[in-house]
Amino acid sequence: MERLAQPSRLLQRKLFEVNLLKPVTVEKEAPIGEIRRILRDTGSRIVLVVNGEGRLEGVIYRSSVILVTSRKSEAKALDIMEEPTVVLKPSYSLEEAVFSMLKFDEWYAPVVNDANRLVGLLGLETPIRLLLEAGFYRGYTASDAMTRDVEYVLEGDSLTRVWEIMVERRYAGVPVVDQRMVVRGIVTQYDLIKKGYTRLGLESEAPPHRVRVESVMTRSVIYVAESDNLEDVARIMLDRGVGRVPVVKSRDSKILTGIIDREDLVRLYFKSRGRASL
């Protein structure tokens, strides 16, 4: 099996040497309706809150916006923003920055200078792209990186079940299967934002207000087989902008056996270096 000769050098560059993402920002007085619109229009998973001088004040996750109830429908950014778990500096190495993000289960982290002014945003797609271009994933298959303990829902389940999984497991998307475990679709946080489903629409679980998964899920789901080349899987995720893809036993059966997300792709690199305690 072909492996990269010196993987330890792949992510040693400093963050100031990396093309950081341009973050989506708002000020803390921005209303929740504007933030929802930004998330819907941009597809962003995170919004950074800055002041008039560009200093970082907090972060807003897409999941936090979905959690807003009717009692907070007039909320502003300052009401739902959180202290960022990971804040990076341009002098940090990419490897250590990404390791910190994985440790705290973060896909994105703001990068600030010594004056706390926002410089950019680091996302896990950056190291994945570098590893892909360097040939790190060559020789691996999807089964080498996939998580087998995967949560899923049925088409007839209430959307509240999806809600519970997203909140408890911090999942950005949940695969949908039938009784035979055949993949039928996926429900993502973006689906909920795009179609206007927030906690406001889920507060009443009594019929006929109950929302079923089948009415919200994306049916044209991107999935991969256990035997697929991991290079192809990583390329699909980057090119299509998806954060996680269901893994099936085979393309013929489409039986769900696991899932691969961006953390799995990056975690494989650290496992290859003997840093698997994440």
Automatic annotation (TrEMBL):
Domain (CBS) ranges: 18-76, 81-143, 146-204, 217-277
UniProt keyword terms in alphabetical order: CBS domain
Pfam families xref list: CBS
Coiled coil stretches, renumbered: none
Protein name: CBS domain-containing protein
InterPro entries found in the cross-reference section: CBS_dom, CBS_dom_sf, Diverse_CBS-Domain
Species this chain originates from: Aeropyrum pernix
SUPFAM superfamilies: CBS-domain pair
Top-level division of the source organism's lineage: Archaea
